Amino acid sequence: MENNAAQSNCPIEAVDLTMAYGTRVIQHDLNFKVEKGSTFIIMGGSGCGKSTLLRHLVGIQKPAKGHILRNGRDFWTCSSKEQDKIRQTSGIMYQTGGLWSAMTLAENVAFPLEEYTSLSRREIREICHLKLALVGLAGFEDFYPSELSGGMQKRAGLARAMALDPDVLFFDEPSAGLDPVSARRLDDLIIELRESLGTTIVVVTHELASIFTIATDSIYLDNRSLTLTAHGHPAKILQETTDESIITFLTRGEGRKDAK
Amino acid sequence: MSLRRKTSTKPVHVAVVTDTHTPGLSTLRMEGCWKKDNSLPQASQVAIPQDASHLVFDCDGITEWDSGLLAFLNNLLDIAHKRNIDVNLDGLPEGPRRLLRLAQAVPIKETDISHDGGGWVHHIGQKAINIINVTLAINRFIGELTIALLKFCVGMAHTRWINVWDQISKAGYQALPLISMIGYLIGLILAFIGSIPLKMFGADIFVASLVGIGVLRLMSPVMVGTVMAGRTGASFAAELGSMNVNDEIDAFQAMGVSPMDFLVLPRFLALCVMVPLLCLYSDLLGVLGGMTVGLFYSNLTYLEFYKQMTSTTTINDLLVGVFTSFIFGILISICGCYQGIKCGRNSTAVGQAATTAVVSSMVCMTIASAIITVLTVILKI
């Protein structure tokens, strides 16, 4: 951690990032920085490439053009060993939970610990218990993911993402498919994590309630011009933007209500 | 429902009324019960005059309606739109009017997803590029697997023995009942088919040689390969494919654990070990099956059968068979895992992956056994 801070205090930066599947460009020329300790929201309509951007940021997909800097270093010029090291400093919660269905919850959370730490079995078990308790799943250690509800799977996914005490936590559509109360509880949990652990949080979402509750910074990906058209706190974006599609997005099509 | 239908038996009727005072204005007078099972007229059958420029509706006679009416009107609006006829919907009942407005509103185009058009040249070109891309992808996969294997040999891979054992048990002993039955029956069938013409020549004894060479060299590896491709290869593809759908493979990658190390290598190793072993087991049962025929149909004694078989069958026959099955194991695991790892992110793709895994491993096995057979002839093994 100290070492990273010395290099740069910006955990993630995208420079001229262009994403494409084959010849189909998803988004082009993205430039943004994620500040340390912020809750950074990637928003945009369905199919604009939010999840794809997330796959780029965590380093599973290689950019078609441009660079992803992690702590000031270009991710894709690092050796594969260093890449793996960087990957271990980030945790990801997937849209569907992404839990390994052949393992129990405890095994899911224990896996990264077993792979990357030299902790004893007992210590790992204790940490698993703690992480599952943090997301409200104490006592579910020996359940398989398929035995849980969607919301519980997501929270278990979060427990696994937090297993290695990551510097950056990524969330892919955290509230999708959850009832309003569970979604709210997950948002509270995200805020709690940022404030207590100081973790940088990157969230992909189009859930307006979450966007305004948890965000400290955000970008808006436009699916017509295929690039980012706004950057800043969502409330500020809404106040200042002149872009019709952003206003429509942030107000569910009702238009901006001028307070004055 | 049926009660209501009885009360509203008024026939469906539609007519175009023109007004001589206002040229170009046509009124569509509609009456009856406009429900979809009442054999409604088609919109194209409505005779709108050639000179019509305005269309209004008079629908006071409509007693009941459902989507049958809506479909009729929607088509009619499309026709009117094509002929540049101005349509005034005010005469319609409120429900259909609002629904039609909804249906006729131009849908907002959300994203620019370009659909590749192009003629047959484009099509052939695309196919050719696909073939090249797939070939490259398979080469890359085999390369990555080789690296993972080397890493495993020096103990640097994220592979766990427990997973290898798990796969060995799934692919191995759980397949034993099936392999037992098929192995035994294959020996039996081969001996039966062979012994009928052999009996005619009074060469009954050679059924032992036939079973020995036939089963050990080819039949047993091929049958074990086929069973394993259908049983294990397909399950590899489906399992890895649904892990892909469920973001599980991403989760490994994002953690810096190569899916090659953790998922593919245990399956690969398991099949490399288990297919030859299952082949040996099937050899034994195949010979037993052949012997059953020899003893009870061809009236040989056990000793005659044994002597004839051992004098004509060499250890090379056995080794060639086991080697062939080893190659089959490699091919089945590569085909299955490749299809699973490259699987698309939906349920249709998973089914497709399983099918393709079986088909491609069958094709690969056939080609491989042809090559091995030719080689053994050339090398006189």
Keywords summarizing the entry:
heterodimer, A: 260 residues, alpha/beta, Rossmann fold, 4-stranded antiparallel β-sheet, 10 helices, 23% strand, globular, disordered N terminus, B: 381 residues, Transcription Regulator spoIIAA, 4-stranded mixed β-sheet, 4 strands
Short recap of the structure:
Chain A is of the alpha/beta class.
Would you kindly provide a written description of the structure presented here, covering whatever features stand out?
The complex is a heterodimer of chains A (260) and B (381). By secondary structure, chain A is an alpha/beta fold. Chain A has one domain (35-60, 88-250): 3-Layer(aba) Sandwich (Rossmann fold). Chain A has ten helices and ten strands. The longest helix of chain A has 18 residues, at 180-197. Chain A is globular, with a radius of gyration of 19 Å. The N and C termini of chain A lie far apart (46 Å). The model of chain A is unreliable at 1-7 (pLDDT under 50). The model of chain B is unreliable at 1-8 (pLDDT under 50). In chain B, helix 6 runs antiparallel to helix 7 and helix 7 packs antiparallel against helix 12 (347-378). Chain B has a four-stranded mixed β-sheet with strand order 1-2-3-4, with helices on one face. Chain B is 67% helix and 8% strand. The A-B interface holds A 24, 45-48, 55, 58-60, 83-85, 87-88, 90, 92, 94-101, 111-112, 115-116, 160, 223-224, 226 and B 110-114, 158, 243, 246-248, 250-251, 253-257.
